[in-house]
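Team,

Forwarding the record for the chain on the shared tracking sheet. I've put the sequence and predicted structure together so nobody has to dig through attachments.
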Amino acid sequence: VLVPSLLCCTLAMERQLKYHEEKLLRKTDFMFWKKENNMREIEIIRRYHIQKREDYGKYNKITNMMQKLAHKLTQLNERDPYRIKMTQQILEKAYAMSLINTKTSLNQIVNMTASAFCRRRLSVVIVRNKYCQTLKQACTYIEQGHIRVGPNVVTDPAFLVTRNMEDFITWTDTSKIRKKIQTFNDKFDDYDFLD
């Protein structure tokens, strides 16, 4: 009884799917099954206006890897030179990314959550720096090319901003929003907007 069903399944996988079958399969996601307790994930995705669910999954993976590394480092002897070197490196990188506030101990890495990465997204940093009022508006400005980080125009709201880059976020030179702000503040110079 099992052999014909297996044969039928293999034949179904070899043939081209019909239109209505493809339409039904588009609605189901085989990569991410619905979890019973994913309310926390949905809440964070809404709070930080994360457009791709995979981004939050990546942040979780990176956070878990850093926590495992910190836990393994705490199990080593405190005077071990390898532990001291690796602790300094991981604390320095996390501090440079502004995931932690101080470089004091590995407990900060162990207690770190995926929200720390979400708070370093370009859209969240723009709202915090008062370039706009809402995250949705920030995402729109970024996708339309109104924001640059240093000399580069960034069009991805998921761009992670480091502590050093935060000072170089500004409007692009050709942005009409920049022109409006400068006109409002009486700092508008026609020469800057000539092509």
